[in-house]
Write a structure and sequence with these properties.
Bound molecules: magnesium ion
CATH class of the largest domain: Mainly Beta
Shape: globular
Number of domains: 2
Oligomer: single chain
Low-confidence stretches: none
Number of helices: 0
Structural class: mainly beta
Radius of gyration: 20 Å
Strand content: 25-35%
Order of helices and strands: EEEEEEEEEEEEEEE
CATH superfamily of the largest domain: Exo-inulinase, domain 1
Mean pLDDT: 95
Helix content: under 10%
CATH topology of the largest domain: Jelly Rolls
CATH architecture of the largest domain: Sandwich
Distance between the termini: 22 Å
Length: 248
């Protein structure tokens, strides 16, 4: 294909702030990613963190050894008091998908019902809880950025039903042990927007406001043992480097 046969133009103005012209024929095409046959299944370039078979990709946060949660029929389940688990894989800016089900048998109320959590980089918690007809404090409800921001909606399915989180996470930047830009979270729960580009105010904690603790550019995905047998399946991420670059 000759230059003039390639789609696009070379006689158009520069896009302000970019090195490319409008409809630039030399601008690289986006990489092809094979979409999943049905939504929620991992796309072609996903990094699979839990595929339903085993916990080889996970460790116990408490011991650093094997993760001791139960694996059964394609899902994993919290085994109370074995502690949080985290992925061996570490990542920064990413699109993350996971599915969870709070216990079909309803036990407890408020924060005691189906409580778990998804900790991005091991530190920043998106609450997992059964908030189906279960009042609790707003910034601790399902999909809350725990202790910071309530979700925009309560999108909970009934206890025992599988539900999805689709997360866009932009990792914080630190320089010289100071915060340059905070973590940013967009979250869809069962396809419903709970957060759009929330700028977090610190790591997750309980009944307090935690100061920033500078860390590296990548971290694990951590799942919380809050004493309830909540289940997870189909956990994957895609790195999204370049999301804020005009050079692409
Ligand atoms: Mg929790």
């Amino acid at each position: 294909m000759t230059d003039t046969q390639r789609p696009g133009y070379s006689d158009t103005p520069l896009i302000p702030g970019q090195r490319w012209k409008v409809h630039d024929r030399d601008r690289p095409a986006p990489p092809i990613v094979r979409p999943a046959a049905s939504s929620g299944d991992p796309p072609g370039d996903a990094v699979i963190l839990f595929d339903g078979r085993d916990l080889a990709g996970w460790t116990s946060v408490r011991t650093g050894g094997a993760a001791l949660w139960k694996v059964d029929s394609g899902y994993l389940e919290v085994v109370a008091r074995t502690g949080d688990i985290q992925s061996r894989e570490e990542f920064g800016d990413a699109q993350i998908h996971l599915e969870f089900a709070t216990p079909a048998e309803v036990v407890g109320d408020s924060q005691g019902r189906g409580n778990s959590g998804v900790f991005l980089m091991g530190r920043y918690e998106l609450q997992v809880l059964d908030c189906f007809e279960n009042p609790t404090y707003a910034d601790g409800s399902t999909g809350a950025i725990y202790g910071q921001y309530p979700p925009l909606a309560n999108a909970c399915r009934p206890p025992g039903a599988w539900q999805s989180y689709d997360i866009l996470f932009i990792a914080p930047r630190f320089a010289d042990d100071r915060l340059v830009s905070p973590p940013r979270v967009t979250l869809l729960h069962n396809g419903i927007l709970l957060h759009y580009d929330r700028h977090l105010i610190g790591p997750a904690t309980h009944r307090a406001v935690a100061p920033w603790a500078p860390h590296g550019p990548r971290g694990p995905l951590r799942l919380q043992d809050h004493g309830n047998p909540t289940r997870f399946r189909n956990i994957w991420y895609r790195p999204v480097g370049g999301w804020n670059s005009t050079a692409v």
